[in-house]
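To illustrate the input format used throughout this study, we show a single complete record. The first block contains the structure-token representation of the backbone; no residue identities are included at this stage. The design step must infer an amino acid for every position from geometry alone.
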């Protein structure tokens, strides 16, 4: 008898973006003439920048030459990329190249990292939240079942609402129920909000005082323009002992199709073994990756390296500037319509509070049917998103402008 992992039966029916894609495909099939504008999943409009294309072409040519061909690479990533990241992104910070693990994207790392922890670790996450953190812990059996609002009994929710400016407050649970692991994502997906240095310090201090670990998703750091907003959690004193950071080239450099990201696992971050001794997570993650992962391809790692060159940085900045301008335009449009909206500054995401009691999936269907626009229903990011809706600035400029015209035509 092949018994399944019954925790999978506790998951919501479909992964959020697969469900969105399913509904869009059904609508398109029934309305082939509709010109749909996609502001749903955070997929970039592209194309890849010239520096990235040159690096790819050079690496492809090398793969065709006996003298330069590369087969299996190091599971942790090539030194050329780990050294480049340490120098370019963490020059002033206490991160060394061998603490950087290259992967095929932050989503996989964020989903996989929880494997290092005991099945009964308590998990805290913001509500709303990027669904991968929640779903991965549901699969691992840490969340139990959801109630009818989609709230998992075993997870500790940190509400982020218009009332608290989408800044999570420390968990208000008895000492013995405090979380062991806290997922934070800033700039936030989906609300688009950022934390100041002092707001992030509160979490680092909490983790230190409570022997908790922060899994910090910094996939959107490249969109920060305001001085003083931390791009890395390691800018915060004390974070090196309690935080693992995840980054991605997807949104930064348009690698959603190429696939590359990395995790920073400081050697000073530890968990507790069954005998009470501290165990470095670096060693565990290294063991996990060498067993289950064969590395990101050489070609892609050369492309990632190119994004850190002066030209690469300039091209990346130009692309992220354009997405930020789109997000700001969407935000401004909603504000001028008198609606409550967050994000759109330092972030490609715009988080709209739907008027009245409107449900987010209902709004999704209405928006698709009446304006032929795809967005992401807030409910897909957790129970707290039920009356919210996410738009992205990742479209091209003309489509975004047209979408805004169509949105203004809706009576909201
Ligand atoms: C999103 O739209 O939230 C992201 O594109 C999803 C992801 O990065 O996996």
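Output of the design step:
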């Amino acid at each position: 008898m092949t018994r399944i992992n019954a925790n999978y039966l506790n998951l919501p029916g479909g992964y959020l973006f697969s469900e969105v894609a399913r509904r869009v495909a059904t609508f398109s099939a029934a309305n082939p003439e509709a010109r749909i504008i996609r502001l749903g999943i955070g997929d970039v409009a592209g194309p890849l920048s010239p520096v990235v294309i040159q690096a790819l072409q050079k690496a492809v040519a090398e793969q065709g030459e006996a003298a330069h061909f590369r087969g299996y690479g190091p599971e942790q990533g090539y030194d050329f990329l780990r050294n480049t990241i340490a120098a370019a992104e963490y020059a002033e910070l206490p991160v060394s190249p061998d603490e950087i693990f290259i992967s095929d994207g932050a989503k996989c790392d964020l989903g996989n990292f929880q494997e290092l922890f005991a099945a009964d670790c308590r998990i805290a996450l913001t509500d709303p939240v990027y669904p991968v953190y929640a779903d991965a812990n549901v699969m691992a059996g840490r969340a139990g079942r959801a109630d009818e609002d989609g709230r998992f009994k075993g997870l500790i929710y940190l509400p982020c609402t218009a009332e608290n400016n989408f800044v999570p407050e420390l968990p208000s649970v008895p000492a013995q129920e405090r979380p062991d692991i806290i997922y934070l994502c800033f700039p936030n997906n989906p609300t688009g909000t950022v934390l100041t240095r002092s707001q992030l310090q509160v979490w680092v201090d909490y983790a230190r005082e409570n022997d908790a670990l922060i899994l910090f998703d910094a996939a959107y750091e490249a969109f920060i323009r305001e001085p003083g907003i931390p791009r890395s959690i390691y800018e915060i004193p004390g974070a090196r002992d309690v935080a693992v950071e995840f980054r991605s080239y997807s949104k930064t450099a348009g690698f959603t199709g190429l696939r590359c990201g990395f995790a920073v696992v400081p050697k000073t971050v530890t968990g507790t073994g069954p005998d009470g001794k501290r165990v470095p997570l670096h060693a565990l993650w290294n063991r996990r990756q060498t067993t289950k992962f064969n590395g990101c391809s050489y070609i892609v790692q050369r492309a990632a390296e190119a994004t850190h060159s002066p030209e690469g940085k300039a091209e990346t900045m130009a692309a992220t500037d354009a997405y930020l301008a789109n997000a700001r335009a969407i935000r401004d449009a909603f504000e001028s319509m008198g609606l409550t909206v967050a994000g759109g500054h330092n972030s490609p995401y715009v988080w709209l509070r739907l008027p009245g009691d409107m449900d987010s999936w209902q709004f999704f269907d209405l928006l698709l049917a009446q304006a032929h626009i795809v967005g992401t229903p807030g409910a897909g990011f957790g129970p707290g998103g039920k009356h919210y809706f996410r738009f992205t600035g990742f479209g091209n400029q003309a489509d975004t402008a047209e979408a805004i015209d169509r949105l203004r035509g809706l009576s909201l």
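Structural context for interpreting the output: The chain has a mean pLDDT of 96. The pocket of D-malate is lined by residues 41-42, 107, 130, 189, 250 (CB under 6 Å).
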